[in-house]
Here is the input.
Amino acid sequence: MSTFEKRAREDKLAQKARAKQQKRAERRGMPAAAPQIVSAADINGNLRSIEEVMRSISGGEGHVSRAAAPLPMKLFVGSLSSATTSASLRAHFASHGAIAEAVVIVDRNSGESRNFGFVTMVDRKEGPPAISALHGSELDGHRIVVNVATER
Here is the structure.
């Protein structure tokens, strides 16, 4: 590259720098623009509420429930009598909430009761009152133990 070409390139870069500096000076002298205020409705448009959407999905029925299905709670029941059956266990717990399942565990080989079982309450909220009411209560002549069941 010759000296002439180098000087021409330098002059071009200097001219660009002067133009840039002039633009900055012009912008600094201008008053600041007012901020534009935008609402959520402007951005999203006309959105329907969740109740309206649920009503349209379910066929236009009046009230739509947004509550989730109840979560079950499994309770361990220990110190059962050998005479206790799943039906009697269910009957003992039935007055303290809805029961999904009541099972007395039996030995695979002999078929005899292992003296413990499990009761699954339909709603998790009914578990603690049932535990406090039935722990230490009497079923078929034995004082039973009622706790929250844990995984193995």
Summary: The chain has a mean pLDDT of 88.
